[in-house]
TrEMBL record:
Entry's Gene Ontology molecular function annotations: zinc ion binding
Recorded superkingdom: Eukaryota
Keywords: Metal-binding, Zinc, Zinc-finger
Protein name: MULE transposase domain-containing protein
Record lineage: Eukaryota, Metazoa, Spiralia, Gnathifera, Rotifera
Coiled-coil ranges per UniProt: none
A Pfam family this chain is assigned to: MULE
Amino acid sequence: MATNYDPEISSLKINESEVLFTLSNKGEPQVIYENAIFNFNQKNQSTKYWLCVEQQCGVYLHTNLTGEFTRINGTHTHPVNPDQIAVKILRDRMKARILAETTSITRIYDKEIAKSNLSKGATAIMPTIVEFRSNMSKARRRNTPVVPKSSVFNIPKLYQETIRSERFLLIDVFLKRGKDRVLVFDSKNQLELLFESETIFMDGTFDSTPDNFKQVYLIHAQKFGQGLPVAFCLLPNKRGPTYTELFERLKDEAILMGKQFNPKRIITDYEPCLLPIVGQEFPAAIHSGCMFHFNQAIHRKITELGLARDYLNNDTIRDQCRQLMALSLMPIDEVEDQFKRLQTIMTTSLDNLLITFDLQLGCPKSIQIFGASLT
């Protein structure tokens, strides 16, 4: 009887009379029979010949071309080791999952060990996670598609679905006559969270963006008092029409699900091309600026004005700059008065920072950066 290797086998106890097909560490075909491992040797028109892996053993296993056991020649000159077989089957199962999934290697290792019921002897010879992860990381990298050199490429099914084999790639569209590509990844459950959330957060990052794209744009929904990532977008640029395309397509998806993409509050960074699009696409929403990016903008300006050393070494200047940042925490009706107070007490070396804040970051009645209220 022949048994093909199945990564979903839950027990490591197999019938010794079965022929179990597997692969060597180098990917060569092997069979396991009566707790011994055989390498493929040769075949003719009707028979495949398998030779015991132990040197000087010389035992041959015969199967037909469909893998059915026919006979075995000789007697093993070495003791068989059921624990070694159990470990090999477990490692093969882990490897199959590692190459087929994007789940972390450590998590796969822990889950498979937990359900394996290894004997004490098998546990003693099972590689540790450190040893196993080193080899399997290399195997996974070899199996990972190379990074495309253009935006025109096929996305493997593995990356279009979740680990539960549900849809993950939501939007895949080309803009500008096929030159710019927009990709959006999220699951059905994440979409439901997005469309049901009254408050959403949006932010782009540029440092970790893959080649052929300009930014990774993330949308978070608010649930249980936390911001949960619900949409992962690869965008080709930072232009208004691209943001419009993104929001319009998400609105279309909401309609298909019988919902609306109409949050009451939107919190973003201060990307100039994004802000008018948010107002255009979500006119009824309160558009707030992100406090982190607000303080980041002030600190960046401090550096641009050559004040970084003073900010670091001068307690007075550092305290006054922080008071400027803290205006975002004041009640709106007090912001103007507090800003005027800072104008009277700040050292003259900070005059240019105050001018920039007043002209670009906005005062008096509420703090605004390019039209987005920080409230």
